[in-house]
Amino acid sequence: MKSEPSFSETPNVSITITQVMAYLFCPRFTYFEECLGIPEHEETRFKVLMGREVHARKVKMNPDYLRKRINVVRKAVSVYLASPELQLRGIVDEVLWLADGTLAPLEYKFAEYRPFVFATHRTQLCLQALLIAEAFRASVMRGYLVYVRSKNFLREVAFRPADFAKARNSVQEVLRIIQTGYFPQQRGTPAQCADCCYRNLCV
Questions:
Q1: pTM attached to this predicted model
Q2: Helix H or strand E segment including 30
Q3: Residues 32, 38: contact at Cβ < 8 Å?
Q4: β partners of residue 140
Q5: DSSP string for residues in 63-82
Q6: What is the pLDDT of residues 51-68, one digit of tens each?
Q7: Helix (H, G, I), strand (E, B) or coil at 147
Q8: Is 139 left (phi over 0), alpha (psi -120 to 50) or beta?
Q9: Helices vs strands, H then E, count in the chain
Q10: From CA 26, how far away is CA 8, in angstroms rounded?
Q11: 3-state secondary structure string, 94-152?
């Protein structure tokens, strides 16, 4: 008797990096939006709107500028990547070609710099790195975050094997919620829950 296929064996299904970011905020976010079809109306959120505006501005500004300080020799902006194998797709703000022959994602954040990297930001970069590595058949060992509200402070993020494993696992967990419709445990902090658009539905 043949067993049920795992989610990794259903390559026609893919999700976006944005969906994974929502899951990392709280798995119930995925449930409410993807299983019940209740939109979050992110288009009304100030930070989302500002983030989109910043991204659009950066794309148009100095398109030929290369960050020599980190040995960038070439770049591409707003790169759409998709992988049936990873069951993932998304847009990378910038793909950087570095002098050592490796590639790296760069992501603009409408945020202030903190002396640590949020887990969600690290996972986002890792997912972009996985897509870049597959698309360009290159090694991706690090990524970069630009904190727009801290005078465009540039932060390097070195990837560890555990980071990639966690990122891949997050993709599979999102797919599992969507495909089985199970009601996951909430993960948000009290402050996150108070700010969540689904707070009146969540029990």
A1: 0.86
A2: helix 27-30
A3: yes
A4: 103
A5: TT---GGGTEEEEEEEEEEE
A6: 677 767 766 677 788 999
A7: strand
A8: beta
A9: 6, 6
A10: 22
A11: EEEEECCCCEEEEEEECCCCCCCCCHHHHHHHHHHHHHHHHHHCCCECEEEEEEHHHCC
